[in-house]
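Write out the 3D structure for:
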Amino acid sequence: MSDDRVSSPVGLHRVVSPAGVLPQAAERLDTRPQLWPDEVRIRAERLNLDAASFRQLERAHDADGDRVRAAVLGIVAERGKMQNPETGSGGMLVGTVEEVGPASPLGLAVGDRVATLVSLTLTPLVIEDGLERWDGRSEQVPCDGYAILFGRSIAAVLPDDLPPELSLSVLDVCGAPALTARVVGQYVRPAPGFEARKLAPQPASGLAPRPASGPVVAVLGGAGKSGSLSLAAAKDAGARTTVGVVPTQAEADLLTQAGIADAVAVADARDPVALAAAVERSGGPADVTVVCVDVPGCEGGAVLATADGGTVVFFSMATSFSAAALGAEGLAADVTMLVGNGYAPGHADYALSLLREHAGVRALFERRLDTP
């Protein structure tokens, strides 16, 4: 691209259709490899598909890996990005910086190995190898191709002390522990270890402060990626009691072995009464409930398990926000509901530090990577 071309830091110049929308809402993006001055091109080597998107693709194609692979290739070819049309979600990627525009503000250099911290739903993407090394049976997708970052995109240089697959898995969900810690920290004075991580301070939310002993925090999907990090973050930020909720005894055993929850409850998060009862038996109701499951239908249970004046944080892309709002209204529940947007200043370093410091969290992540 000529340096006199005008680009948008949020990528409006890459939107092909429909006109006037942001890249995330676009039906198709411009994927040409030539850069505008503030862009960066990444040589992609691995995608990490959003969990809700991958599960939907598995269900739609009867867990047939070849059909799942063909579906992903079709989406990327048609849309110029990876955005599941059913879930609306995408994921993120790891790769090496291939070219940096002269006006890029991202601070990246050619040769840096990075993970993108913006969704694949808004990232121009081209797959050049037909995903020939992927069996279609896992969220992590080896690939060869390229992606484009905008002036206002975010990327993290991969740490040297962790395998890239592990870093990618953590960074895919790094917004969850950061917001969990922030919300818990609004109920109590942040723990010293939390302040040292330098997550950006935020104005008070208006929540009534809880006793110095801290709030009860329930995490639905506590044995998963975002769930395990959120449990560690909640305790780090001063939670009195953390409750990890999982759907099966097998997952309960894994979470108990990890040692990152004060209590472990087995309940179907789609069953509101059973979920609320399980949280109650484990020390609830919760002051803060964090939803990290990748199946729909958990909104009512999350609200019912939360005390009046409490907060529900939704991190699942399977969440129906109309169901959450109308469900809370129908239950006459006085709760604050937050949408986790996947970004907070310092979120990448914070998530990686939790992984390094909590052996149980790391064990859950590594087991997930090793499980087909």
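The chain has two domains: 12-160, 175-370.
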